[in-house]
């Protein structure tokens, strides 16, 4: 395939008109990006270090500090024009060491331990835990209909499953996640004593999936945990047989004072339009379990790889290309917010920001959020250049959490779109580890981002 | 996404002209296929049984017999119009119990064991093994240039790696596999005593990848093994430092008499054109290591799922739909050959055959081999119906080993095309096990095949 493509392109350079010839140059350049990434890519070995030697790295943790220093050193080695840290104060929540949950006082089962994980940001239970009856609901609406009388003093169990019929699993996640983010406060308002949430997962297993919750202002703050999908099925089944069974929950997470941390930024200065900035980024922090491999070690190493590929091809971009490793995406978004604040204050002009935060799986395309139709059409015009690499999904569903705060009329916010089937098997679990990442899939992702950056740099957006 | 699609389609049914309305009916029908597969699909649990309870199942083995009986019973349960076994005599090669290889008599290393696997069909070494110097080559051409003088009495080490720059890994496999299939005979002709082949692998690890060899008529038959990619790198490095080092190889595989086995066939009779047959198939046999999960348990359960989905939707096909689980794809192709022979003898008219034998990964499209341009264009006209499910790669590179013998001017030979990045990490290794298969990816594959069968059945091809 490679050989015939090269032949075609050489013929093109000799006898086709200018536009076609430019396209053939682009096609050759992009082919070279992929060749390099697939044969000499370094993201996989970088990710091995980040996940295996540093590991889980929640904001404020010593490991998050190690990740900052590691990312700085990795980019320092690359001979970029500038590598710097951007200060940002981050929240510091710790899980504690007493996470325990069990079904107790049931007529039909002896005490039965179940796997749970405190939701990020949850308050603790009393030191000896709490024990209460359980009320199961499928949604916040259903909870509200039950009302205070039926909820008061109970543990609310949100058990709406992931909708498996979505082809893109992120859509299923979005359809389930309100139970985790808003459920605890809504239950608290009705007098519940705790919340148990079914994991937002595409598979059935024993791993609970954690994730952030948002306590609403003024609502009582009650402890909240995620239960594994298998655990949720068991609990639901037992409740049908014995609706007076009780659930015991004990945990001691706590909030500590904010910690000084950093976004880590590397930059190649533009040769013609240095004031126009293209960002590629991922987030350096992860949850405190597993290794933060697909979420989002992969996005970090892919972003660095974009700069490394440019350097190693001797490519001098017209515009300024920045890799940003954001801090605190998981439980605060302080890094993304700070980056946009500083950019605004300094009057920086971002023309595009590409975020990789959906796992290091086989590339399928890009979502491109822009207020300008011409911008989207320009991106669409590159489809033929990207399709040979499996990048068929070019649509308007762009954006990303960390680049979101950059939003204005001039910048295209672009989400890198890898295949989504496996992501929510491991997302926010102890199972998000290096061995779940495939080398070729990861390197293809970095190459895909590099190819898009090349086109945006050359033609603007 | 689902909801908006449904709305769109309902609107379409009410006010669009006939062609568009038919397309919307198709779109609804296909959506229902995927919904069912993703929520009630049975392939994953079927595959768990085949891989975990039956396991590796080389032709002629007791496990192959178990797989035949299992497939027959599975299809029997489905209430098909006909389930039957098609007799086929298969070769029976066994690996033996003495596979051992080591680098010996080297100036720079003490005896160092390396992981190898006899190639399927290889003859044995003498009972005490053989020991010889090693000559490393990158290709059969290079071997021929060395000539008898430099090869005689030696072990030939084919070490051309997988070309990582291919985006579709199957292309890299095809570019490397001649070393394994023809290398042993070419080396034998020049007086070599054995062959060691670098594994056709996309990753670097300690697992050797086996696979079939073809002894040429009249050429000396010498023992041949695959060495893991890590092992090959070590051997190559040591050879550079000490080109007189010796390699010891000991193994006792053998050929036993042919065994009676079966293709397993299930069928739903066509309501309007029962004489026109559409086949979906995979192969039931596997190599004798690992569990034959992606190669090709997945193809078997997906093929059965196509029929099951039709049944469970109450869909009555116009044409006859057959799921065929072929026997002996790996080391003889006797099942595929027999199936085509019988079809020809009975004057059966096959209009399309779809083979799934590239792993149970996320679907990306179909390769459609046909002698008729109109047939290909018809398939291409369905692109918009398939694209929402990630099926963008519709091209002419169709076919498959088992359906190959069906080739004539009337039948379209179609290869199901899953994502290829992970396949050659585990292909033909002890690592091809159930845990490498993702439930959603697998079920999406069966649904994709069912969607294509639906369109071919409805519109012909």
In short:
Chains A, B: Keywords: Carboxypeptidase, Endoplasmic reticulum, Glycoprotein, Golgi apparatus, Hydrolase, Lysosome, Metal-binding, Metalloprotease, Protease, Secreted, Signal, Zinc, Zymogen. Chain A is of the alpha/beta class and about 450 residues long.
Rounded to an integer in angstroms, the radius of gyration calculated over CA atoms of chain A is 24 Å
Largest interface, C-beta closer than 8 angstroms, per-chain residues = A-B, 33 and 33 residues
Full CATH superfamily name of the largest domain in chain A: Zn peptidases
Number of helices of chain A: 15
Distance between the termini of chain A: 30 Å
CATH architecture of the largest domain in chain A: 3-Layer(aba) Sandwich
Q: Which strand order does the major sheet of chain A show? A: 1-10-12-11-13-16-14-15
Mean pLDDT of chain A: 95
Percent strand of chain A: 15-25%
Name the helicity range of chain A. Answer: 25-40%
The protein's oligomeric status is homodimer
> What is the overall shape of chain A?
elongated
Largest sheet of chain A: 8 strands, mixed
Whole-number tally of structural domains of chain A: 2
Helix and strand composition category of chain A: alpha/beta
**Low-pLDDT runs of chain A:** 1-16
Strand segment count of chain A: 16
